[in-house]
Amino acid sequence: MSQLKGFPKDFLWGAATAANQVEGAWDVDGKGPSLADAMVAGTHQVPRRITLDIDDGKYYYPSHNGTDFYHHYKEDIALFAEMGFKVYRMSINWPRIFPKGTETEPNEAGLAFYDKVFAELKKYGIEPLVTLYHNEMPLNLVTEFEGWSDRRCIDCFLRFAEVLFRRYKGVVKYWIPFNEINDLTTPVGNWNHGGILNPGTEFFTDQADDPDKRYAALHNQFVASARAVLLGREIDPEFRFGTMICHITVYPLTCHPDDVLLTQQEDLLRNCFSGDVQVKGYYPYYIKRYFERNNIHFPILPGDEEVLRAGKVDFYTFSYYMTNCVTAQKDAAQVSGNIMGGAKNPYLTATEWNWQIDPVGLRYTLNHIYDRYGVPIMITENGIGARDTLEADGSVHDPYRIDYLKAHIEQMRLAIDDGVELVGYTPWSAMDLVSVSTGEVEKRYGFVYVDKDNQGNGTMKRYKKDSFYWYKHVIETNGEEL
User: Residue 188: in which H helix or E strand, if any?
Assistant: First the structure.
């Protein structure tokens, strides 16, 4: 038998964060509030409340100070360099550049911050992978336009994108226009991803839904992404653009044909639809029929379809945390997950937050994606949220994180041996940050421990976890030694 293929010599090892979850400094240097700044803290049992009138005296908003990357970026990037990062996936906070989203001139102080971040990354030879929209819509666009359901947001976004493309030409090569764009195929995507707050919505996990408005928002994001791709290529032909899909891989709970058919339908809607539009450049047959069957209507204007065809992305990125099962059985046990849960898989274990762990599913997913699209792939989120303990000597022992990541990297290598063109891996997350689903920091994901609790107390001091040293060795050996 031939020897197992290894990771490519130029493989992009790194990790990821999002501005609204790490930066803090929510009202510093001219930054305006984002929709993330209007979400109060919660837990796995207590849902996060959405408040358009931000009241720091009544509620605690974890994104307001995040884990203070804004004031610690030099220290943090030095830690990333010590781990050996080849790439750092980050986002740029839209209201830090355009505080209300409707301005014609950018906030220079906001741009100056990212100038410094990119300078630090360059100093250490770390390639930035930049997400333009990672749930950081200016709150003003939520209240003035009803978020992405209004086409005026497209021009606001393109103004933001153009400023960044021109400013960082020759500095940033890899761009992701929208994070987890397919989350708008679910009602919970209304707020965080669409900037839509329908009447009756009070909590993030229990949102009132208007499918017409939600799919209008998704269409507007497709158009905005395609137009951004075209604009970026005009500014710098060396730019490369990727889709980013929240991939919720699903299996039939049983081999009953009803379960198999439901699983196929779920996979097409949640996982394939958005990738098909952004990589292939058109709305596929099955989603058109889905809209007809569910009486969903939204405007597609003349020229939109041509823009989608012309503004296709170059590579495919996705998040992968867990898998779920699908069944026609009404009484099947349920589990949670990233954005959506599903039926419990009896063959898998789960985290404290009831997310099931499935490394083999990552290999299955990589093959599924590459077979469908045939473009280079990056895994831009993958990790485990857990309660870490800071010991008296400053150590943090997280063998469960090492075990999780090791098992997934092993499956990545097997997928590469299958023939998949996997070019990068940025697990979630580079450092501890605010969890979107619950607003907790104590649901920790990072290689770097940040001394902050769920109520915002702590020194913000950084500590290296055991996984920090382990991942450093993985990168040093290019994945040969896990």
Answer: none
Question: What values do phi and psi take at 389, rounded to 5?
Answer: -115, 125
Give the span between the Cα atoms of 334 and 422, in whole angstroms. 32
Q: What is the largest CA-CA distance in the chain?
A: 66
Confidence check: pLDDT of 182 > 70: yes
Residue 24 pLDDT grade (very low, low, confident, very high; cuts 50, 70, 90): very high
Active site (annotated) includes residue 442:
no
Q: Count CB neighbours of 269 within 10 A.
A: 16
Catalytic residue among 180, 202, 238, 481: 180
- The strand order across the sheet containing 342-343 reads 249-252, 323-326, 342-343, 334-335
| Under 8 Å between Cβ of 417 and 482 | no
- What percent of the chain has pLDDT above 90? 96
Residue length of the chain? 482
- CA 100 → CA 66, 105, 205, distances in Å? 21, 11, 26
Secondary structure class of 267 (helix, strand, coil): helix
Contacts of 182 (CB under 8 A, 6+ apart): 245, 246, 270, 271, 273, 274, 275
Measured distance CA(107)–CA(467) in Å, rounded: 38
Q: According to the model, what pLDDT value does residue 290 have?
A: 98
Query: Tens of pLDDT along 52-104?
Result: 999 999 999 999 999 999 999 999 999 999 999 999 999 999 999 999 999 99
- Active-site residue (options: 136, 381, 410, 442): 381
Burial of 162 (0-12, 13-18, 19+ CB in 10 A): middle
Q: How many Å apart are CA 416 and CA 287, to the nearest integer?
A: 31
Q: Is 391 a catalytic residue?
A: no
**What's the confidence (pLDDT) of residue 2?**
67
Q: Which of 462, 463, 461, 481 is nearest to 471 (CA)?
A: 481
Q: Which distant-in-sequence residues (6+ apart) come within 8 Å of 133 by Cβ?
A: 91, 94, 157, 177, 178, 179, 221
The 3-state secondary structure of 204-245 reads CCECCCCHHHHHHHHHHHHHHHHHHHHHHHHHCCCCEEEEEE
Query: In this model, does residue 1 exceed pLDDT 60?
Result: no
Q: Which residue has the tokens 């939520």?
A: 142
Q: What is the pLDDT of residues 106-131, one digit of tens each?
A: 999 999 999 999 999 999 999 999 99
Give the closest residue to 379 by CA, choosing from 350, 353, 359: 359
Question: Closest by alpha carbon to 273, among 256, 291, 287, 294?
Answer: 287
Lowest mean pLDDT among 3-7, 154-158, 229-233, 241-245: 3-7
Q: Give 300-306's long-range contacts (Cβ < 8 A, gap of 24+).
A: 300/219, 301/151, 304/219, 304/223
